[in-house]
């Protein structure tokens, strides 16, 4: 069996490749990336595959049995890019597509949901065997800013008291590896989220405990939060989107208590304390 992973040099892709190497060996894997030179450190064969250049995709997928389609990072362009990959997979005779979608994409109010849901429909209509991994929020979406939070004594956001069922990116990578290498997942849609739901105030409290310094959670109006993010250098449209996702989280959009992820990987999801420790280190 040959397994190909798109976006293999990305934050999730790299972790999936490492998981797969320990399960099936490097010889069974292909890293599909825009620039194969940047994949040299992965230790697997890399092929050029650009979502925006369909002519690169079918050759890259030649001989592939199972494809992990990691969703594009280019919000607003995902549907066209994913369509290119799905069409190429069908033309190349790929046997199965596993797609990384969004938690509760069919009912989620997040602005991200529409592109994921449309991609899910394309995958299902392709005629290929499929599995959909509806990934919840990565804990790292917030822990990347913890050094600044400690320095300023405050973590900011607009999520209010919303409980977020986040999990470490490595947990989602392991789930993908399980689905890619074990039977019984065809036609399944998995809602994947962490075991323990926490608020941003809970995150601030854990940071305070580990840093030995008081870090408060300051809940801001969305416009103020977006303005602060733009002030940190984020494009205004992205800043506004992130603030809107926090508002959705405040209303429960990122909560899930099904514990499907931990059952799939056969262990509890990584505790918040461990992810915070890694971020502060």
Architecture overview:
The structure is a single chain. The protein is α/β, with parallel strands linked by helices and 281 residues long. The protein has 2 domains: 3-134, NAD(P)-binding Rossmann-like Domain (Rossmann fold, 3-Layer(aba) Sandwich); 136-168 and 192-256 and 270-281, UDP-galactose 4-epimerase, domain 1 (Alpha-Beta Complex). Helix content is 43%, strand content 15%. It is built from 12 helices and 9 strands. The strands form 2 sheets. The protein has a 7-stranded parallel beta sheet with strand order 3-2-1-4-5-6-8, with helices on both faces. The chain has a two-stranded parallel ribbon with strand order 7-9. Strand 5 (96-102), helix 4 and strand 6 form a beta-alpha-beta unit. Helix 9 (222-231) packs antiparallel against helix 10. The radius of gyration is 19 Å and the shape is globular. The chain starts with a strand and ends with a helix.
Class per helix and strand makeup: alpha/beta
Main sheet: strand order: 3-2-1-4-5-6-8
- Could you tell me the CATH topology label of the largest domain: Rossmann fold
Main β-sheet, in a few words?
A: 7 strands, parallel
CATH class of the largest domain: Alpha Beta
Number of domains: 2
Q: How far apart, in Å, are the first and last alpha carbons?
A: 39 Å
Overall average pLDDT: 96
Strand content: 15-25%
Low confidence ranges: none
Order of helices and strands: EHEEHEHEHEHHEHEHEHHHH
CATH architecture of the largest domain: 3-Layer(aba) Sandwich
The CATH homologous superfamily of the largest domain: NAD(P)-binding Rossmann-like Domain
The percent of residues in helical segments reads: 40-55%
- Total helices: the number is 12
Backbone shape: globular
DSSP E strands, number: 9
Cα gyration radius (Å): 19 Å
